[in-house]
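Late entry, evening session. Most of the bench is empty. Finally got around to the prediction I had been postponing all week. Sequence below, unchanged from the version circulated by S.P.
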Amino acid sequence: MNQNKRTAKLLIISFIFLIWFFSSIGLSIYNVKAGNTWIFLITLGQFFIVMGSFAIIAMVSEKQNGWWLGALFVFVGSGCVTFGLMNRFGSDDIYSKMVNVIPLVLGVTMTIVSLVMLIHDATSRKKLRDICTYEITAKCIGHRVRGAGHRVAICPIYEAVFNGDRLILNKNIYAKGLGNPEKEETRQLRICLDDIKKNDPNSSTTEDIQISRYIDEKTDKAVAAFTNIMLSSFFAAGIILSIAAYLFIPIF
């Protein structure tokens, strides 16, 4: 009965979400054609805010670090709403200055966000190396998949045995073929023994021990290289855009 109620709630929420999604797109297109710039900006802004909020909730609930992307969407959406309101109710002079400052704000934001993410990523990897010191042999027993076609990303699931206990290792991090193992492939991983010690030794349960922190050298190096290249590119682009906007676009 509870499962049926949950399914019904999910269907209702999904239906409401679809109505909101297509209504937002339709309203944006209509107002662009009608020349209602301010309504278009507000509609676009609330779209980004809602989608960004959903992304933050999903990332936090799954204990992933990608929440900053959702926060960026919320920031952009808030900016769109602000510009829409200023376009309608603000003076032409103030609105013109706000438009001129957009490239500089975008450049500075890109620079700061990418720099913070580079530092956070490097710090997280160092912390993981400091605590994951015990080497263990694990076998890939399958993959979780997201996306389709060229957008597909996979998350390997490992199995290992420690002192008679079955360990299931899953970082819940998805990557596009960056050093990911084949099914049944065996690798040497490093884990944190504290994650195993957290389980009650007096418990009689036979459930598998779930491990989310571990080091897989091959995959981790590939993901780190890709992440550093991507974030460094955004950082360089942010600096170039900031300098160009400051030199060539008059604000005051």
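Two things to note before I forget:
The mean pLDDT is 83.
Strands lie at 134-146, 153-162, 165-169, 186-191, 209-211, 214-215.
Will write this up properly tomorrow.
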